[in-house]
Write a structure and sequence with these properties.
10 strands, Putative ABC transport system ATP-binding protein, ABC_transporter-like_CS, ATP binding, single chain, ATP-binding, four-stranded antiparallel sheet
């Protein structure tokens, strides 16, 4: 499903050239639960942006579901993000003025799903993450763990091939964080491909496979 071949990315910070990724090479298959783990400044955020089609490599190749990302237009990349990738962020990124049901509906509205159908589906996705009785609650009326569950339901609502979760437990206490990881594992058991970005080795070990990145390079890739 995902193949990166010798991917590099360089940024200029002032007059200094910084190589955020240096000859990254790995594959991720359909249905895997993979954690990308590394300390702050290791390059994992840059790698996440690449995986999420928010950026493209300076060198190397990136194929997502057979699509050559390097040669895709901005419109093509936006379409890929909207249809193939469900994003889950550390700080939830819910719309504060919308209730949980409405937040889950948003991606479907952009896809042109009718109001009645999007409401029905949003309710089903909330039930899938255990929040069927919280649909009318706004984010401020929900706990952090509940907000992250809404965010996961929202990610699922675009029927993505991949859920890309960026530090999804970072704003949560340990108990709630474990519950969110358990939910991701349940979704993976149902066939969902999940890529988890984290700096926490304990969290990373909950995935079926870990890709370690340090100083922009893969330091350990046991199942390439």
């Amino acid at each position: 499903m995902i193949e990166m071949k010798n991917v590099s990315k360089t940024y200029m910070i002032g007059d200094t050239e910084v190589k955020a990724l240096d000859q990254i090479h790995f594959q991720i298959g359909k249905g895997e639960f993979v954690a990308i783990v590394g300390p702050s400044g290791s390059g994992k955020s840059t790698l996440m942006n690449m995986l999420g089609c928010l950026d493209v490599p300076d060198e190397g190749e990136y194929f997502l579901d057979g699509i050559d990302i390097n040669n895709s237009s901005d419109n093509d990349l936006a379409q890929i993000r909207n249809t193939k990738i469900g994003f889950v962020f550390q700080n939830f990124n819910l719309l504060s003025k919308l209730n949980a049901l409405e937040n889950v509906e948003v991606p479907m509205m952009y896809k042109g799903v009718s109001a009645g159908e999007s409401k029905r589906l949003a309710s089903a996705y909330l039930e899938r993450v255990g929040l069927q009785d919280r649909g009318k609650h706004t984010p401020k009326e929900l706990s952090g763990g509940q907000q992250q569950r809404v965010a996961i339901a929202r990610a699922l609502s675009c029927e993505p091939q991949i859920i890309l979760a960026d530090e999804p437990t970072g704003a949560l206490d340990q108990k709630t964080g474990r519950e969110i990881i358990c939910l991701l594992k349940e979704l993976n058991a149902q066939g969902q491909t999940i890529i988890l970005i984290t700096h926490d080795n304990n969290i990373a070990q909950q995935a079926n496979r870990q890709i370690c990145i340090i100083d922009g390079q893969i330091s350990e890739e046991p199942r390439l």
